[in-house]
Structure formats: C-alpha cells, structure tokens
Amino acid sequence: MTTFRTVSIDGLDIFYREAGSCSNPTILLLHGFPTSSHMFRNLISALSDRFHLVAPDYPGYGNSSMPTVNEFDYTFDRLAQIVEKFITAIDLKKYSLYVMDYGAPIGYRIAAKYPERVEALIVQNGNAYEEGLREFWEPIKAYWQERSPENADKLRHLFTLEATKWQYINGVQNPEAISPDNWNMDQPFLDRPGNDEVQLALFYSYGTNPPLYPQWQEYFRKYQPPTLIVWGKNDYIFPAEGAYPYQRDLKDVELHLVDTGHFALEEEGDAIADHIRRFITTHVVKEDIIPVPTRK
Length: 296
Known about the structure:
8-stranded mixed beta sheet, alpha/beta, single chain
C-alpha cells in the first residue's frame, strides 16, 4: 500500500509518497519538471513488494507548499537543502537514488556531499555532462547569460498545457498509450498564480548546474556507486548523448536505452522496473528479504 504523507521542513509542508517495508533497501525517487512524485506512482506499486520507496514533491511542485519567489529562494542549491533535510526528517540512513531531469542536479548535490549514504544510482534522463545539453537548451542558456524580461518571455510557452503534453508524448512509440491524466495532473499546478515565476527562477538557476559537472564526475570516479542507466533514447530535452558519458567515469555501470521519450516510465515502466529489481537485488541486497508491514 502506498501512503501519502506530509512532513514540515523549514516551515514548508513537503508531501511524499511511501511504500514498502522500511527493513528493505530504500530507493529515494527524485522527480523532474514539470511533474511531481506522481510520475513514480506505477513504479512504486511495481517495486514495493521488495523495496522501500520514498518520493517527495519539491517546494513549488505537486502537493508540497508553493511559497512565492519573494518568500523562498528557488534555486537548485536550496531544493537540495530541502531534500537533504527531508532525508534526515524521515530518518533515511542509506538509499539508492533514482534521479530524473531536475532530480539529477538535486540528487548529485546530496550524493557528492554524503557519498557514504548512496548505495546505488538509477539514472533516467538525468544529466551530468555537457554532451547532454543540446538544442532544447539554447533559449534557456540565453536566459542564463541575460536574465531579461525578453528572454524570460521566450520560455513562458514551456509552462502551457501544449508544452506539458508535448513532454509526455514526444518521442514515444504509441501516443495513445500515454494517459492524459499526466498532463491534466501537472498543468493545474503550473497554472497556479505565481508558479510561472517559480519555474523561471529554476530555469535560471539551472545555469549553476553545468559548473558542478566536474565535481559530480569526480564523485563518480572516486566513489564508484553502482549505476543503472535507463534512458528514454528519443528524449529531445535530455537526449541519449547525455547517457553515454557516464561510462567514462563509472566502472560498475549498466546502460539501457529504451525506445521512448522524456517520461520513460509512462511507456516503458515495466521494463524499467524489471531492470531496477534485478540491478538493486544484485548490487545492494545482501540477503533474502522477507517483506514485513510498512511503518505506521
């Protein structure tokens, strides 16, 4: 059974989904833009018999608090701080990190700071290399260079229903297999008054991530976390060119390019769940696990 909980972090309500026994290996699931922990709903159900899964919503997303840009510093440093405090609040000692899209720069900040806590990485369309920032990013890079109203206006179309739907169906094999519940779930959160400014702040803050790529790559080389890469190869936002470079720095790495788009779990969720079950069982599980009731 998945439970839906809220914990207070720095005065903010941080919503999270949780399932599976706490005695089983934990997988911490970090979502991307413009979605929330909702993107992991099916994966949580598929894996909760053998793993403990936790998926928070960041401030400004999903069911967590959405302070205004004047009340909260919407940067990736700050989001990582919130997730770090969340990890402490719910008493996670060790975990595998599933990072996707925005989840990568958030998760890698935490992993590089606390490498001893990370048992494995699961990377799904989450970038840590310059090769992964291609055509889609050109107008955002322009915003990094000049944070002007004109450059901001060129990005606002990315907060529309049309753009949200495009993120889910672009590059998929069968658009009719993708539930409209996805964009109908995400869009009302994007449409909240003031949320466009939240998203613009994070688009600008994303410019702080590439300078950290060498630091994260050094973390990979030094600590060598076992890493499973399951990457939607038709993703225009984070194309497959960003998946291959992980193999330069990681020795125990397994790469699977799946024939779908950005939100790979929507079309290839079963295959990804199978890869995770096998990989984490091989690399993290040290003994047979007997499911027990979840934490109350």
